[in-house]
């Protein structure tokens, strides 16, 4: 469960410019653009919204959700500057409700809530894709002080997606020399 102190901590980080890369899409997303089919997208824990901005520029109708009002205000200002439309929602993701069968593409980058996967799988339209990237336990070799509960076991992300009824399209660990990252593209099976 997210607490008010979590929200305040993230607001402070984003206000100081310490959040994830400002307004830039993740290469794992842009490198797989050929898989996109358009439609409606959801960026979970969107932070500064680089992925949401990128998808909006491609014509997607994008919803971005994050707990930090500071980050969302910055995304809104950048979207307006670029002439893009993004629907932004401030919410505690542990309690947030996502509509079923609503999205063609869902993104989750470096936010880990294992209980969220079944809801995200249900939120995909048949044939819709989920892109997710998280750090795994190998990250402790780099940052031994990092909270282990927020790290995946190697192979765990694939298992969570399969258990939620998704078909794994791509799964990789250690790509580009980053053994501490687990990356997944999964599809909700067509009807």
**What percentage of the residues does DSSP assign to strands (E)?**
25-35%
End-to-end distance, in Å? 34 Å
Overall mean pLDDT: 89
The shape is globular
Count of beta strands = 7
Query: What is the share of helical residues?
Result: 25-40%
Strand numbers in spatial order across the main sheet: 3-2-1-4-5-7-6
The helix tally amounts to 6
Radius of gyration: 16 Å
Biggest β-sheet: count, sense, barrel?
Answer: 7 strands, mixed
Unreliable segments of 5+ consecutive residues:
none
Order of helices and strands: HHEHEHEEHEHEE
What class would the helix/strand composition place it in?
alpha/beta
Summarize, please:
The chain has 191 residues and is an alpha/beta fold. It has helices at residues 4-15, 27-30, 50-57, 69-82, 117-123, 156-163; strands spanning 40-44, 61-66, 86-90, 103-109, 124-135, 167-173, 181-187.
Explained architecture:
With 191 residues, the protein is of the alpha/beta class. It has six helices and seven strands, in the order ααβαβαββαβαββ. Strands 3-2-1-4-5-7-6 form a seven-stranded mixed β-sheet, with helices on both faces. The longest helix has 14 residues, at 69-82.
